[in-house]
Specification:
With 316 residues, this protein is of the alpha/beta class. Helices cover 43% and strands 20% of the residues. It contains ten helices and 16 strands. A six-stranded parallel beta sheet has the order 3-2-1-4-5-6, with helices on both faces. It has a three-stranded antiparallel beta sheet with strand order 7-10-11.
Amino acid sequence: MLNTRKVVIVGTGFVGSSIAFALMQQGIYSEMVLIDYNKDKAEGEAMDLTDGLPYAPAMKIWAGDYSDCADAALIIITAGAAQKPGETRLDLIGKNTKIMASIIGEIKKTEFEGILLIVANPVDVLTHEALRLSGYPENRVIGSGTVLDSARLKDEISMHLQVAAQNVHTMIIGEHGDSEVPVWSITNIAGVPLHAFCELRGHYNHKEAMQQLYETVRDSAYHIIERKGATYYGIAMAVARIARCLARDEHAVLPVSSALHGQYGIEDVHLSVPAVVGKDGVETVLEMPLDDDELAALRQSAEALKAVIREAEKTI
């Protein structure tokens, strides 16, 4: 029987442990299981997190194994090789596809009926492979996608215009990676079109500013990795946001990595576009109006990912 208050995190590296910390603080679940091939690492993280429980919402945290997945509402998969300086997310594909295949094989031995949330990179490709390998319904296998990228774009715009990020409405779609696409055509600040708001704040070089903001967001992970070796706090908050939508059945619209079947003229690939997310995972993939350049860029992103997926399937 599904325990709607139970989450499992597979992989307790920087990303997995940061997600665990974020989920503990937010009180979304009452049980959290940490799984790692290095059982000592998982046990250490569980012990460290448990030390903070007197100051957090009630929760039971322990290091477990795949048998603990059977009744979980959500399994978050972060396990995989980390992105190194100079590497792209797509460079990780061979190593992480094999790791994903092993993890899915273990989960399938249980009676798991919850949601699989893929966070390991390249997330779009690994989400596609997780669906293929698991055979679970599409709505139950989703990727963290461009939820983080979209937050980064909101933050950059908010700093550029000196306005609260909560009032910036925009989205990054496509690959979580180098071919991601900012949707400038729908971007607004509290309902005011982007260019109009920019001019209210004394900014007129729209094209140059937009390109600079996009490049900053696109290359953000590279800059962070160069300086500290890994990124984990931002993605932890993004994953906690997705988990909250699932656990509380929010029906929120988020750019998660989902299977496309003709939307935007794209087939047979996972990539991020806005979708309604609730307790059953992806409820509806939305097809928002894009301008011609955005649509062309999204389709190019899809084709790039399809080529990588074909290569990934050769490694298993």
